[in-house]
C-alpha cells in the first residue's frame, strides 16, 4: 500500500515514473526531506516537520517550500490511505532536473511501517558508537557542510547502519572527535537520570528532533526535568536509561551498547511512551 501526491493535491499512481533521470536529488542528493508519523489519519508534529523542511531548504538555498501546497499534499495522501492505522509519510523536495526549467521536484508518499520497526519499538535495540568525523564547533565554522539539515545526502548514515549490522548491532550512536555524543543516523539520543531527560544541543551540528521535542513537552508537564546539554560517550553507560527517538520508531530503548548489556529499561520505556502518546 502506497499513496503518492503532488503539491496541487492530486494523487499519482506510485508505479508511474515521476522523477527525471537528471533530477539533482537523484544525481547528487541535492534536496531535503521529512518523515512524518500518521496515526489514525492524524499527522504527528506536522507543523514542526514543515518548519524543519523550510529550515533545511534554506540551508541548501532551495526555493522556500510552499507550505499550503505541502498541506494539500499531506491531506491528499492521508485521505487516500486505506492501509494500516499507522503510516510513514515522506515529504521530498529536490532542486529539480539539472537540464530542466528550474522547477523543484516535490511530492509526498505514504508508506506502510515495516514489521522490523514495530518490533524494535516493543523490544528495543542494540547499538554501537561510531565516530562521525566532526567536532562540535564545525557546524558554525563550516555551514556549507549542512550539518543539522535533513538533506537527501544520507549515504554516510546508511553506510554506518550497514557497518553496525556487520558488528551484530541494530543501530548507531554517532560521536564527535572529542567524544561528544551527537545523534543516530535517523534518530535523536535521549538519556535518563532519575526524573531528568537529557539530549545533546542542536548547535553542535545535529538535527533538532521533533519527537524529542514532543516527549520533552509532555515530560515537563508531568513534573520531569529536561536538559539540553552536551553528552559525553561515557554518559551512555552512566545513566538510568538510553533511548533513540524518531518520528516513525517513536521511543525506542537501547538494550546494549558496543556489546555491553545495559539495564532493563522496559518499565521506563513504557512510562516514556505513555508520556509521548499523551501529546496526541
Automatic annotation (TrEMBL):
<dbReference type="GO" id="GO:0008696">
    <property type="term" value="F:4-amino-4-deoxychorismate lyase activity"/>
</dbReference>
<dbReference type="InterPro" id="IPR001544">
    <property type="entry name" value="Aminotrans_IV"/>
</dbReference>
<dbReference type="InterPro" id="IPR043131">
    <property type="entry name" value="BCAT-like_N"/>
</dbReference>
<dbReference type="InterPro" id="IPR036038">
    <property type="entry name" value="Aminotransferase-like"/>
</dbReference>
<dbReference type="InterPro" id="IPR050571">
    <property type="entry name" value="Class-IV_PLP-Dep_Aminotrnsfr"/>
</dbReference>
<keyword id="KW-0456">Lyase</keyword>
<dbReference type="Pfam" id="PF01063">
    <property type="entry name" value="Aminotran_4"/>
</dbReference>
<protein>
    <submittedName>
        <fullName>4-amino-4-deoxychorismate lyase</fullName>
        <ecNumber>4.1.3.38</ecNumber>
    </submittedName>
</protein>
<comment type="similarity">
    <text>Belongs to the class-IV pyridoxal-phosphate-dependent aminotransferase family.</text>
</comment>
<dbReference type="InterPro" id="IPR043132">
    <property type="entry name" value="BCAT-like_C"/>
</dbReference>
Amino acid at each position: 500500500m502506497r499513496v503518492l501526491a503532488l503539491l496541487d493535491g492530486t494523487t499519482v499512481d506510485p508505479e508511474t515514473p515521476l522523477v527525471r533521470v537528471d533530477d539533482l536529488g537523484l544525481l547528487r542528493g541535492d534536496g531535503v526531506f521529512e518523515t512524518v508519523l500518521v496515526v489514525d489519519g492524524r499527522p504527528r508534529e506536522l507543523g514542526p516537520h514543515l518548519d524543519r523542511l523550510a529550515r533545511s531548504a534554506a540551508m541548501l538555498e532551495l526555493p522556500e517550500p510552499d507550505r499550503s501546497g505541502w498541506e494539500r499534499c499531506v491531506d491528499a495522501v492521508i485521505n487516500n490511505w486505506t492501509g494500516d492505522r499507522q503510516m510513514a509519510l515522506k515529504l521530498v523536495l529536490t532542486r529539480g532536473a539539472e537540464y530542466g526549467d528550474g522547477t523543484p521536484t516535490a511530492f509526498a508518499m505514504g508508506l506502510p511501517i515495516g514489521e522490523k520497526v514495530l518490533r524494535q519499538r516493543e523490544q528495543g535495540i542494540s547499538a554501537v558508537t561510531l565516530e562521525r568525523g566532526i567536532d562540535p564547533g564545525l557546524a558554525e565554522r563550516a555551514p556549507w557542510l549542512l550539518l543539522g539539515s535533513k538533506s537527501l545526502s544520507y549515504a554516510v548514515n546508511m553506510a554506518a547502519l550497514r557497518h553496525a549490522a556487520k558488528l551484530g548491532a541494530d543501530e548507531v550512536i554517532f560521536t564527535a572527535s572529542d567524544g561528544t555524543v551527537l545523534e543516530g543516523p535517523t534518530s535523536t539520543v535521549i538519556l535518563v537520570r532519575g526524573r531528568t531527560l537529557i539530549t545533546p544541543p542542536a548547535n553542535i551540528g545535529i538535527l533538532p528532533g521533533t519527537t524529542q521535542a514532543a516527549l520533552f513537552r509532555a515530560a515537563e508537564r508531568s513534573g520531569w526535568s529536561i536538559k539540553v546539554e552536551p553528552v559525553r560517550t561515557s554518559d551512555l553507560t552512566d545513566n538510568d536509561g538510553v533511548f533513540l527517538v524518531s518520528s516513525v520508531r517513536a521511543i525506542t530503548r537501547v538494550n546494549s551498547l558496543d556489546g555491553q548489556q545495559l539495564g532493563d529499561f522496559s518499565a521506563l520505556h513504557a512510562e516514556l511512551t505513555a508520556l509521548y502518546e499523551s501529546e496526541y
